Amino acid sequence: MDLEIAGRKAIICAASKGSGRACAMSLGREGVELVINSRTAADLEATAEEIRKDSGAKVTTVACNITTAEGQAMVLKACPDPDILVNNAGGPPPGDFRDWDRDVWIAAVDANMLTPIFLIKATIDGMIERKFGRIVNITSSTVKSPIDVLGLSNGARAGLTGFVAGLARKTVQHNVTINGLLPGPFDTDRLRTNLRKAADRVGATYDEMYAKRAADNPAKRVGDPYEFGETCAFLCGKHAGFINGQNLVMDGGSFNSTM
Question: Which residues of 203-212 are buried (b: 16+ CB within 10 A; e: fewer)?
């Protein structure tokens, strides 16, 4: 399917690895002009070069911390009028809420709630004026099915989701949609790192933990980041204009619900 977004401009946050990288790859294949960012310049440039080789897409890199005002300003200077915004940031660490002080909470809220909100604030009026906009917030399946040790993520990302639920109903009449994409286990560096930590805690091997994680999923596997990127690209496409204010869980069916 031609998503009819060739020539559109997109900002993809935290795009050097994992789900952000997958989204950038898929949008590049659709002919979208990309501005991608991450904190690590070397990883970012390597990803940009891979996208260029894969699709020939125009890619601009901005090495910065997107969770800071300075980082956001750098990205917006590189792409002041995006048609597509993919909000993404690494999740806060797991732990016991008794150990989290105010600074820890503020860092989580800054990264996973306020940063997306401020980027939306900076770009949405231009999208409304141009009568086209697609915003995808990469959050987590824990928004719908919380995990106790991920309380920082549960709280901050649920806050973003609640904010978007109201705003999206105001922007869609202008062909500007806002949706959440909620990943479960995908084969990314973050998943592998967490599985190694879990293996160390219980005295198992990494391969054993990986196999268990796959076996515990109804799909009997973990997700391929390519699948995630292609879904994001569809939500950013011309034909997805009637999908709005939704939170699509991509977890192989782990979230057990009829709704």
Answer: eeeeeebbee
Residue 232, C-beta contacts closer than 8 angstroms, at least 6 positions apart: 22, 23, 26, 27, 86, 136, 138, 181
Average pLDDT over residues 106-119: 96
CA 132 to chain centre: 20
Q: What is the pTM of this model?
A: 0.95
Mean pLDDT rounded to a whole number for the chain: 96
User: 179 and 246 in contact (C-beta within 8 Å)?
Assistant: yes
The DSSP symbol for 38 reads: E
Report the distance separating Cα 155 and Cα 180, nearest Å: 15
Q: CA–CA separation, 74 vs 65, rounded Å?
A: 10
Return d(Cα 212, Cα 206) in angstroms, integer. 10
Q: Cα separation of 191 and 212, whole Å? A: 13
Residue 167: partners with Cβ closer than 8 Å, 6 or more residues away: 120, 124, 178
Residue 187 phi/psi, 5-degree rounding, is -75, 80
> If you search the block for the tokens 């800071």, which residue do you land on?
68
Q: Read off the pLDDT band of 56 (50, 70, 90).
A: very high
